Amino acid sequence: MDPSNPKSDAMRLRQLWIFVALAGAVLPAAAGCPPPGQDAASLATLKAQGFSQPDPAARRTLAMGLVDCLGDRDPALRDGIAYEALAHWMRAGDFDAETLRALQAALRRQLAAPDPDGVRHPFAALVLSEVARTDRVAPWMSAGERDAMLADAAGYLSGVRDYRGFEAGIGWRHGVAHGADWLMQLALNPALDAAQLQRILDAVATQAVPAAGHAYVFGEAGRLARPVAWVARRGVLAPEAWTRWFSGLRTRLGPMPAGGDVAWLARKHDLDALLAALYLEADQGQNEALRALKPAIAATLAGD
Fold it and tell me: Of 77, 67, 105, 101, which Cα lies nearest the Cα of 19?
């Protein structure tokens, strides 16, 4: 918005209200969304004001209320307001550990709830990646809580079977990418040990060569490469662990069936895309532990 033109700002805000209101009229809202005391116009105003909410109690109440909006079919509400607000407040350090625990519990319930539109689970996972980031930046989880979150994140990514990315009208689902983002934030956390980092790699492997034979077209391979690259940068896994992991990727793919097979070709496409993205990370970076993986990545790409 142009601070020198209040009339222009008012017009844009009015347009935003109309857009959110119309979207809400066309797309049914999730249960409990908008939260009590809010409507499309008030949420649009909240966004226009940079999600400013100076009262901690009111901010916590609104944050917990917005969790239900992560399952809304309207991308302006789900992605543009609920996700952006929650991420903004967490990155600003606006929540104490008690609030973060409550938010994490609510998000876990979202992962367990029915998701007929296929948006609730991936956006809960994306917000959980922001919860994981808060613990990395300023630790507040116990070792047990952190391990439980790792189990949730690995289980979520491994269990994704809805491979839809972007769809006009409903926006992003992107379950694989969001699960990878969650694991990346955990991989960045220095509190995780080698065994926990190995669990991250094992979860990524399940979607690097998805059994369903789905060909990624929405950047999923690059997102899957990120947690792998950050695990490598940590430099705590032994070379033989990496050898086993890369060998396991080829084993998951297996030989091409006689006469060809579309599903196998899609899975090979996914594996090659992941390896190419990972090789680029290793080649362009300065981290020696990551650069040391270049021969193994190249050999796996070549099928050796």
Answer: 77
Calculate ∠ Cα 153-158-160, nearest 5°: 100
pLDDT of residue 186: 98
The DSSP output letter for 236 is -
Under 8 Å between Cβ of 297 and 282: yes
Question: Which contacts of 192-198 are long-range, i.e. CB under 8 A and separated by 24 or more positions?
Answer: 192/146, 192/150, 193/236, 194/236, 194/237, 194/241, 196/147, 196/150, 197/231, 197/234, 197/236, 197/237, 198/237, 198/241
Q: For residue range 2-24, list pLDDT tens digits in order.
A: 333 433 444 443 443 333 333 33
Please give the full DSSP string across 43-78, using - where no structure is assigned: HHHHHHTTT----HHHHHHHHHHHGGGGG-S-HHHI
What residues does each domain of the chain span?
16-186, 193-304
